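Researcher: We're teaching a course module on how sequence relates to structure. For the next exercise, students receive a sequence and then see the predicted structure as tokens, so they can try to spot secondary structure elements on their own. Here is the exercise chain.
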Amino acid sequence: MEEDGGVVIDGSNERDLLLDLASNETSLLGLIRTLLSPKTLPHLALITLLSTVLYFIASTDDGGDIAALGFISLSCGYAITALFSNNQQVKSWITLSDQSDSIEKKKFTSRIFSSFKICIFPLGISGILGLLIMTLFGQNSGSDLPAAFPISLGSLFVLWAVAQGRSFGSWASSIAAKKLPPRESSSGNMKVMTAIQLCIILALSGLGIVGFQFLYEDNFDIGDAILSNVIFFLLATAVYGLTVAWTWKQRQMSLRDKALKRFSSRWTIFAHIFATWHLLTIWRQLVMSPGTIEVFIEEILLMMFTVFMAIWSITSQSVGSKYKFLSTENALPWGLSFGYAYAGSVAMLATAFSDITYVMVSGHIIALLTITWLQRSVLSNILDQHDLSVSVDRASQKTSSPAKKENSQSEHKISAEVSEQDTQTNDGIQVQWDGAVGPSISDDVEWDDVIELSD
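Model: And here is the predicted structure for the students to work with:
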């Protein structure tokens, strides 16, 4: 509770929202253990192998339809597997058993091939779906797919770029809401906070530029690396400045409360670092000319990060929900389904543009814009909860004020009557103190029996 201009403010509403954000992060380690469990590693190896093969098939002449069919079938196959993964029989089919003794007795190659038997069920469903799609939608005696399939798969890339920004925003906001101080009035200098954040952003940008320049050039010089990329620093400053202007009102309002101030400073710096990293990746791919293999590996890691964060975001939001679309129990097959769809969208766009670089750049731009928009959205949501709690408390104060007013009037009336009686007494009414107004205690007491007089 706080007093603010005579009004009691209870910040429980927005504190509850911040606590909800903080509690989301608790499932992160559990999800990592689930996705990287040794019992399901063959699925991860398979998606790496098949995605790479289908990507190169998509880059060949007339290979786009085959690759699109493969990615769509595998994505849908693992999605159906996820729907039935809570069934114990299905779970035993897609998970390695605990009978490690019999497996260890086999040769290494035998163990490898034996472990991939858990992929048979989703691959079988994917094969059936692929044949069904070809039968229903195939053209020219089933040899070609309609153009809508590759186009639709490629358009999912926009969705994945947005999901990357939103899922990172969910994680960053949960981290920012950890261990906040108690609610109490606060203040701060917005210009100083902005300058400190800008210095952090530019320092990290400098480390990134110097590090990548060191990898790309044989004759490395720190001063030359910074001067040759001075335009990037100007771009990073411009992006930061525009974002600050976009969220200035929300940042300024958050300074009035200590907890909101701490959350705002953490959340915005995390979001700015994420946005600047995307900007640095765009700059590298367009200006610094990294190798194709490097870009390919980087985007595979980015795909894994995006899918993982998307799964974490959905599982965190489903906590406490009666109907859970996705949980840690079926997180792996859903993640593999998302992964095949993500890889397929990248492959389709890379085929359309004949270069993966521009596809990746567009994805990074979308992710940068998404996290920038989320900065204002998250802060506004927290502040709206704060204002709602204040409005509720003010309404309760107004409801209780008539009763307080009535009590005050009664007390004032009683006080007036007493004051009037006192005034009349002082104005001439004689009070008889000798007991004539009623019986006196002295009339019934034998004083000689009670008190002995001594000589």
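Model: If you want an answer key for the exercise: The first strand starts at residue 2 and ends at 4. The radius of gyration is 36 Å.
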